[in-house]
Amino acid sequence: MTAPSVRKAVLAAGGTGGHMFPAEALARELHARGVAVALVTDRRGGGFGGDLAEVETHHISAGGIAGGSLVKRLGGLLRLALGVLQARSLMRRLDPDAVIGFGAYAAAPTVLAGSHLGRRVILHEQNAVMGRANRLLAGRADIIATGFARVEGLKASELAKARMTGNPVRPDIEAVGQQAYRAPRAGEAIHLLVVGGSQGAKVFNSAVPAAIAQLPKALRARLRIVQQVPGGVLDQVQAAYQGCGVAAELADFFDDMPARLARAHLVICRAGASTVAELASAHRPAILVPFPHATDDHQTANARALVDLEAGWLIPESDLTPEALAGQLETLINTPARLELAAARAGGLAPGDAAGRLADLVCGSANENGDEADQGPDKDRAAQPNPKEAAA
Fold it and tell me: Is the pLDDT of residue 388 over 90?
Protein backbone atom coordinates (compact mmCIF):
# COMPACT_ATOMS: atom_id res chain seq x y z
CA MET A 1 0.00 0.00 0.00
CA THR A 2 1.35 3.43 -0.96
CA ALA A 3 1.71 5.73 2.02
CA PRO A 4 -0.48 8.83 1.66
CA SER A 5 1.27 12.18 1.46
CA VAL A 6 0.10 14.42 4.31
CA ARG A 7 0.51 18.15 3.88
CA LYS A 8 -1.99 19.31 6.45
CA ALA A 9 -3.87 17.67 9.31
CA VAL A 10 -6.86 18.94 11.26
CA LEU A 11 -7.10 17.88 14.90
CA ALA A 12 -10.59 17.86 16.42
CA ALA A 13 -10.81 17.82 20.20
CA GLY A 14 -13.12 18.83 23.01
CA GLY A 15 -11.94 21.63 25.25
CA THR A 16 -11.06 19.53 28.31
CA GLY A 17 -7.49 18.54 29.13
CA GLY A 18 -8.10 14.83 28.65
CA HIS A 19 -8.75 15.44 24.95
CA MET A 20 -6.58 18.49 24.36
CA PHE A 21 -3.36 17.09 25.78
CA PRO A 22 -3.00 14.13 23.37
CA ALA A 23 -4.02 16.47 20.54
CA GLU A 24 -1.26 18.89 21.55
CA ALA A 25 1.31 16.08 21.73
CA LEU A 26 0.35 14.92 18.24
CA ALA A 27 0.45 18.49 16.92
CA ARG A 28 4.00 18.88 18.19
CA GLU A 29 5.08 15.61 16.57
CA LEU A 30 3.43 16.42 13.24
CA HIS A 31 4.91 19.92 13.25
CA ALA A 32 8.37 18.39 13.69
CA ARG A 33 7.70 16.26 10.60
CA GLY A 34 6.79 19.28 8.50
CA VAL A 35 3.02 18.72 8.54
CA ALA A 36 0.85 21.82 8.86
CA VAL A 37 -1.65 21.53 11.70
CA ALA A 38 -4.95 23.22 12.56
CA LEU A 39 -7.05 22.70 15.68
CA VAL A 40 -10.85 22.66 15.72
CA THR A 41 -12.50 22.71 19.14
CA ASP A 42 -15.55 24.04 20.98
CA ARG A 43 -15.90 27.26 22.93
CA ARG A 44 -14.05 25.77 25.92
CA GLY A 45 -10.89 25.06 23.94
CA GLY A 46 -8.28 27.76 24.31
CA GLY A 47 -5.85 26.44 21.73
CA PHE A 48 -2.28 25.30 22.28
CA GLY A 49 0.37 27.33 24.03
CA GLY A 50 4.14 27.50 24.19
CA ASP A 51 5.92 26.43 21.02
CA LEU A 52 2.54 25.67 19.39
CA ALA A 53 0.94 29.04 20.10
CA GLU A 54 0.86 29.88 16.39
CA VAL A 55 -1.18 26.79 15.43
CA GLU A 56 -4.40 28.12 13.92
CA THR A 57 -7.40 27.40 16.14
CA HIS A 58 -11.05 27.39 15.06
CA HIS A 59 -14.14 27.16 17.27
CA ILE A 60 -17.40 25.58 16.16
CA SER A 61 -20.72 24.77 17.77
CA ALA A 62 -21.07 21.41 19.54
CA GLY A 63 -23.37 19.69 21.98
CA GLY A 64 -23.92 16.33 23.59
CA ILE A 65 -26.88 14.18 22.57
CA ALA A 66 -26.78 11.53 25.30
CA GLY A 67 -28.25 11.80 28.79
CA GLY A 68 -30.16 14.67 30.32
CA SER A 69 -33.70 15.80 29.56
CA LEU A 70 -35.35 15.66 26.15
CA VAL A 71 -35.03 19.44 25.84
CA LYS A 72 -31.31 19.25 26.63
CA ARG A 73 -30.76 16.47 24.09
CA LEU A 74 -32.66 18.37 21.40
CA GLY A 75 -30.59 21.46 22.11
CA GLY A 76 -27.42 19.40 21.82
CA LEU A 77 -28.61 17.93 18.53
CA LEU A 78 -29.29 21.42 17.11
CA ARG A 79 -25.84 22.65 18.19
CA LEU A 80 -24.29 19.53 16.68
CA ALA A 81 -26.11 20.11 13.38
CA LEU A 82 -24.92 23.73 13.32
CA GLY A 83 -21.39 22.52 14.07
CA VAL A 84 -21.51 20.13 11.11
CA LEU A 85 -22.46 22.99 8.77
CA GLN A 86 -19.66 25.14 10.20
CA ALA A 87 -17.17 22.28 9.96
CA ARG A 88 -18.01 21.51 6.33
CA SER A 89 -17.32 25.09 5.34
CA LEU A 90 -14.13 25.10 7.40
CA MET A 91 -12.90 21.79 5.96
CA ARG A 92 -13.37 23.03 2.39
CA ARG A 93 -11.30 26.10 3.21
CA LEU A 94 -8.56 24.29 5.15
CA ASP A 95 -8.45 21.38 2.69
CA PRO A 96 -6.66 18.90 5.02
CA ASP A 97 -5.40 15.47 3.98
CA ALA A 98 -6.35 13.93 7.33
CA VAL A 99 -8.75 14.63 10.20
CA ILE A 100 -7.93 13.23 13.63
CA GLY A 101 -10.67 13.15 16.28
CA PHE A 102 -9.84 12.92 19.98
CA GLY A 103 -13.30 12.21 21.34
CA ALA A 104 -16.12 14.22 22.92
CA TYR A 105 -19.07 15.52 20.93
CA ALA A 106 -17.05 18.67 20.20
CA ALA A 107 -14.96 16.61 17.78
CA ALA A 108 -17.94 15.02 16.02
CA PRO A 109 -18.85 17.80 13.53
CA THR A 110 -15.28 18.05 12.22
CA VAL A 111 -14.86 14.28 11.90
CA LEU A 112 -18.23 13.98 10.13
CA ALA A 113 -17.31 16.82 7.75
CA GLY A 114 -13.91 15.27 7.02
CA SER A 115 -15.51 11.91 6.29
CA HIS A 116 -18.13 13.51 4.03
CA LEU A 117 -15.36 15.17 2.01
CA GLY A 118 -13.46 11.90 1.66
CA ARG A 119 -10.54 12.80 3.92
CA ARG A 120 -8.54 10.22 5.85
CA VAL A 121 -10.16 9.90 9.29
CA ILE A 122 -8.38 8.69 12.42
CA LEU A 123 -9.92 8.50 15.86
CA HIS A 124 -7.92 8.41 19.08
CA GLU A 125 -9.63 6.79 22.08
CA GLN A 126 -7.86 7.62 25.33
CA ASN A 127 -9.87 5.41 27.70
CA ALA A 128 -10.32 1.67 28.18
CA VAL A 129 -14.01 2.09 27.33
CA MET A 130 -14.89 3.60 23.96
CA GLY A 131 -16.40 7.05 24.43
CA ARG A 132 -19.92 7.68 23.16
CA ALA A 133 -18.86 10.20 20.53
CA ASN A 134 -16.12 7.90 19.23
CA ARG A 135 -18.60 5.01 19.12
CA LEU A 136 -20.86 7.18 16.99
CA LEU A 137 -17.98 8.02 14.64
CA ALA A 138 -16.17 4.66 14.56
CA GLY A 139 -17.89 3.47 11.40
CA ARG A 140 -16.49 6.46 9.51
CA ALA A 141 -12.91 6.04 10.69
CA ASP A 142 -10.11 4.58 8.62
CA ILE A 143 -8.12 3.83 11.80
CA ILE A 144 -9.02 3.80 15.50
CA ALA A 145 -5.94 4.45 17.65
CA THR A 146 -6.30 3.31 21.26
CA GLY A 147 -4.65 4.26 24.52
CA PHE A 148 -5.11 0.81 26.03
CA ALA A 149 -4.42 -2.69 24.77
CA ARG A 150 -8.02 -3.73 25.38
CA VAL A 151 -10.90 -1.34 24.75
CA GLU A 152 -14.51 -2.08 25.57
CA GLY A 153 -17.22 -0.90 23.19
CA LEU A 154 -15.55 -1.67 19.88
CA LYS A 155 -17.79 -3.65 17.54
CA ALA A 156 -16.42 -6.84 15.99
CA SER A 157 -16.47 -5.12 12.60
CA GLU A 158 -14.30 -2.30 13.97
CA LEU A 159 -11.56 -4.38 15.60
CA ALA A 160 -9.63 -4.64 12.35
CA LYS A 161 -9.28 -0.84 12.32
CA ALA A 162 -7.93 -0.66 15.87
CA ARG A 163 -4.26 0.11 16.50
CA MET A 164 -2.76 0.39 19.99
CA THR A 165 -0.59 3.51 20.20
CA GLY A 166 -0.90 4.37 23.88
CA ASN A 167 -1.70 7.81 25.28
CA PRO A 168 0.88 10.55 24.66
CA VAL A 169 2.52 11.99 27.76
CA ARG A 170 4.88 14.92 28.17
CA PRO A 171 8.59 14.20 27.60
CA ASP A 172 9.42 15.30 31.16
CA ILE A 173 6.99 12.67 32.47
CA GLU A 174 8.67 10.00 30.35
CA ALA A 175 12.01 11.16 31.77
CA VAL A 176 10.78 10.32 35.30
CA GLY A 177 10.33 6.69 34.25
CA GLN A 178 13.92 6.51 33.06
CA GLN A 179 15.12 7.05 36.63
CA ALA A 180 15.36 4.06 38.95
CA TYR A 181 12.53 3.81 41.48
CA ARG A 182 13.40 2.88 45.06
CA ALA A 183 10.81 2.45 47.82
CA PRO A 184 11.64 3.84 51.29
CA ARG A 185 13.07 1.46 53.86
CA ALA A 186 12.38 1.46 57.60
CA GLY A 187 12.99 4.86 59.14
CA GLU A 188 13.23 6.72 55.82
CA ALA A 189 10.88 9.49 54.70
CA ILE A 190 7.83 8.41 52.68
CA HIS A 191 6.69 10.79 49.93
CA LEU A 192 2.96 10.48 49.24
CA LEU A 193 1.39 12.38 46.32
CA VAL A 194 -2.39 12.90 46.36
CA VAL A 195 -3.96 14.35 43.20
CA GLY A 196 -7.39 14.32 41.63
CA GLY A 197 -6.77 15.28 38.02
CA SER A 198 -7.44 18.64 36.39
CA GLN A 199 -10.60 19.20 38.48
CA GLY A 200 -9.28 17.75 41.72
CA ALA A 201 -11.16 15.22 43.88
CA LYS A 202 -12.98 16.70 46.87
CA VAL A 203 -13.41 13.29 48.46
CA PHE A 204 -9.65 13.19 49.10
CA ASN A 205 -9.92 16.36 51.23
CA SER A 206 -11.53 14.39 54.05
CA ALA A 207 -10.74 10.75 53.29
CA VAL A 208 -6.97 10.99 53.12
CA PRO A 209 -6.32 13.04 56.31
CA ALA A 210 -8.77 10.80 58.20
CA ALA A 211 -6.90 7.71 57.01
CA ILE A 212 -3.50 9.20 57.86
CA ALA A 213 -4.72 9.95 61.39
CA GLN A 214 -5.31 6.22 61.92
CA LEU A 215 -1.74 5.20 61.06
CA PRO A 216 0.75 4.40 63.83
CA LYS A 217 2.51 7.50 65.18
CA ALA A 218 5.95 6.29 64.08
CA LEU A 219 4.74 5.82 60.52
CA ARG A 220 2.99 9.21 60.44
CA ALA A 221 6.26 10.86 61.46
CA ARG A 222 7.88 9.55 58.28
CA LEU A 223 5.21 10.85 55.92
CA ARG A 224 5.78 13.80 53.60
CA ILE A 225 2.49 14.56 51.85
CA VAL A 226 1.87 16.67 48.76
CA GLN A 227 -1.86 17.01 48.08
CA GLN A 228 -4.05 18.80 45.58
CA VAL A 229 -6.92 20.35 47.54
CA PRO A 230 -9.87 21.67 45.51
CA GLY A 231 -12.88 23.47 46.89
CA GLY A 232 -11.27 26.34 48.80
CA VAL A 233 -10.67 24.32 51.98
CA LEU A 234 -6.86 24.46 52.18
CA ASP A 235 -6.88 25.74 55.77
CA GLN A 236 -9.20 22.98 56.99
CA VAL A 237 -7.17 20.22 55.36
CA GLN A 238 -3.91 21.71 56.63
CA ALA A 239 -5.36 21.82 60.14
CA ALA A 240 -6.32 18.14 59.88
CA TYR A 241 -2.74 17.19 58.99
CA GLN A 242 -1.25 19.39 61.69
CA GLY A 243 -3.56 17.75 64.19
CA CYS A 244 -2.04 14.35 63.53
CA GLY A 245 1.55 15.62 63.29
CA VAL A 246 2.08 15.13 59.55
CA ALA A 247 4.04 17.44 57.24
CA ALA A 248 1.89 18.38 54.24
CA GLU A 249 2.29 20.72 51.28
CA LEU A 250 -1.11 21.64 49.89
CA ALA A 251 -2.26 23.56 46.81
CA ASP A 252 -5.35 23.66 44.61
CA PHE A 253 -3.17 22.94 41.55
CA PHE A 254 0.42 21.91 40.86
CA ASP A 255 2.08 23.08 37.64
CA ASP A 256 5.25 21.03 38.22
CA MET A 257 3.75 17.53 38.19
CA PRO A 258 6.83 15.82 36.66
CA ALA A 259 8.94 16.92 39.63
CA ARG A 260 6.22 15.86 42.07
CA LEU A 261 5.97 12.43 40.45
CA ALA A 262 9.73 12.03 40.51
CA ARG A 263 9.78 12.46 44.30
CA ALA A 264 6.69 10.36 44.99
CA HIS A 265 6.98 6.85 46.42
CA LEU A 266 3.22 6.27 46.17
CA VAL A 267 0.36 8.14 44.51
CA ILE A 268 -3.32 8.35 45.49
CA CYS A 269 -5.36 9.54 42.52
CA ARG A 270 -8.32 9.24 40.17
CA ALA A 271 -8.05 7.04 37.07
CA GLY A 272 -8.52 9.32 34.09
CA ALA A 273 -6.76 8.21 30.93
CA SER A 274 -4.03 10.86 31.17
CA THR A 275 -3.42 10.12 34.86
CA VAL A 276 -3.05 6.38 34.24
CA ALA A 277 -0.78 7.00 31.24
CA GLU A 278 1.46 9.28 33.31
CA LEU A 279 1.66 6.76 36.16
CA ALA A 280 2.66 4.04 33.73
CA SER A 281 5.20 6.21 31.94
CA ALA A 282 6.69 7.49 35.20
CA HIS A 283 6.71 3.96 36.73
CA ARG A 284 4.91 5.05 39.88
CA PRO A 285 2.73 2.73 41.99
CA ALA A 286 -0.69 4.10 42.86
CA ILE A 287 -3.86 3.60 44.83
CA LEU A 288 -6.58 4.39 42.30
CA VAL A 289 -10.00 5.74 43.28
CA PRO A 290 -12.03 6.05 40.04
CA PHE A 291 -14.51 8.91 39.69
CA PRO A 292 -17.80 7.05 40.21
CA HIS A 293 -19.82 9.24 37.83
CA ALA A 294 -17.51 8.93 34.83
CA THR A 295 -19.38 8.07 31.63
CA ASP A 296 -19.82 4.28 31.32
CA ASP A 297 -17.60 3.94 34.41
CA HIS A 298 -14.56 4.22 32.13
CA GLN A 299 -12.23 5.23 34.98
CA THR A 300 -12.72 1.86 36.65
CA ALA A 301 -11.77 0.15 33.38
CA ASN A 302 -8.70 2.39 33.13
CA ALA A 303 -7.70 1.51 36.69
CA ARG A 304 -8.12 -2.21 36.12
CA ALA A 305 -5.55 -2.07 33.31
CA LEU A 306 -2.95 -1.17 35.96
CA VAL A 307 -4.37 -3.51 38.58
CA ASP A 308 -4.25 -6.43 36.12
CA LEU A 309 -0.52 -5.80 35.79
CA GLU A 310 -0.23 -5.70 39.59
CA ALA A 311 0.98 -2.12 39.17
CA GLY A 312 -1.69 -0.47 41.30
CA TRP A 313 -4.49 -0.99 43.81
CA LEU A 314 -8.14 -0.13 43.21
CA ILE A 315 -10.45 1.25 45.89
CA PRO A 316 -13.94 2.21 44.66
CA GLU A 317 -15.02 5.55 46.12
CA SER A 318 -17.92 3.81 47.86
CA ASP A 319 -15.34 1.73 49.77
CA LEU A 320 -12.99 4.64 50.54
CA THR A 321 -13.31 4.56 54.33
CA PRO A 322 -10.50 5.84 56.57
CA GLU A 323 -10.02 2.28 57.83
CA ALA A 324 -9.71 0.78 54.34
CA LEU A 325 -7.29 3.42 53.09
CA ALA A 326 -5.20 3.37 56.27
CA GLY A 327 -4.91 -0.42 56.09
CA GLN A 328 -3.82 -0.30 52.45
CA LEU A 329 -1.27 2.44 53.14
CA GLU A 330 0.24 0.66 56.14
CA THR A 331 0.55 -2.62 54.24
CA LEU A 332 2.27 -1.00 51.25
CA ILE A 333 4.62 1.21 53.24
CA ASN A 334 5.72 -1.76 55.33
CA THR A 335 6.44 -3.90 52.25
CA PRO A 336 8.72 -1.82 50.01
CA ALA A 337 9.26 -4.81 47.73
CA ARG A 338 5.58 -4.62 46.71
CA LEU A 339 5.95 -0.96 45.79
CA GLU A 340 9.07 -1.64 43.74
CA LEU A 341 7.44 -4.55 41.94
CA ALA A 342 4.40 -2.40 41.12
CA ALA A 343 6.64 0.39 39.82
CA ALA A 344 8.45 -2.05 37.56
CA ARG A 345 5.22 -3.49 36.19
CA ALA A 346 3.57 -0.12 35.59
CA GLY A 347 5.81 0.40 32.58
CA GLY A 348 4.15 -2.57 30.89
CA LEU A 349 1.11 -0.40 30.21
CA ALA A 350 3.02 2.29 28.33
CA PRO A 351 4.47 1.33 24.94
CA GLY A 352 6.53 4.53 24.77
CA ASP A 353 6.55 7.31 22.16
CA ALA A 354 2.76 7.25 21.83
CA ALA A 355 2.79 10.58 19.98
CA GLY A 356 5.25 9.18 17.45
CA ARG A 357 3.16 6.04 16.96
CA LEU A 358 0.05 8.13 16.41
CA ALA A 359 1.87 10.42 13.96
CA ASP A 360 3.02 7.34 12.04
CA LEU A 361 -0.62 6.37 11.55
CA VAL A 362 -1.57 9.87 10.45
CA CYS A 363 1.27 10.04 7.95
CA GLY A 364 0.74 6.46 6.79
CA SER A 365 4.34 5.51 7.62
CA ALA A 366 3.26 2.55 9.78
CA ASN A 367 2.64 -0.70 7.96
CA GLU A 368 -1.11 -1.06 8.36
CA ASN A 369 -0.86 -4.82 7.95
CA GLY A 370 1.51 -5.57 10.77
CA ASP A 371 4.02 -3.01 12.07
CA GLU A 372 4.43 -2.99 15.85
CA ALA A 373 3.04 0.54 16.04
CA ASP A 374 -0.01 -0.57 14.08
CA GLN A 375 -1.24 -3.70 15.81
CA GLY A 376 -4.81 -4.07 17.03
CA PRO A 377 -5.48 -3.86 20.77
CA ASP A 378 -6.04 -7.57 21.41
CA LYS A 379 -3.06 -8.54 19.29
CA ASP A 380 -0.84 -6.07 21.13
CA ARG A 381 -2.05 -7.39 24.46
CA ALA A 382 -1.26 -10.96 23.46
CA ALA A 383 2.25 -9.92 22.51
CA GLN A 384 3.00 -8.37 25.90
CA PRO A 385 5.21 -10.44 28.23
CA ASN A 386 3.73 -11.88 31.35
CA PRO A 387 4.39 -9.15 33.95
CA LYS A 388 5.40 -11.69 36.58
CA GLU A 389 7.92 -13.24 34.22
CA ALA A 390 9.20 -9.83 33.16
CA ALA A 391 9.75 -8.81 36.77
CA ALA A 392 11.51 -12.04 37.70
Answer: no
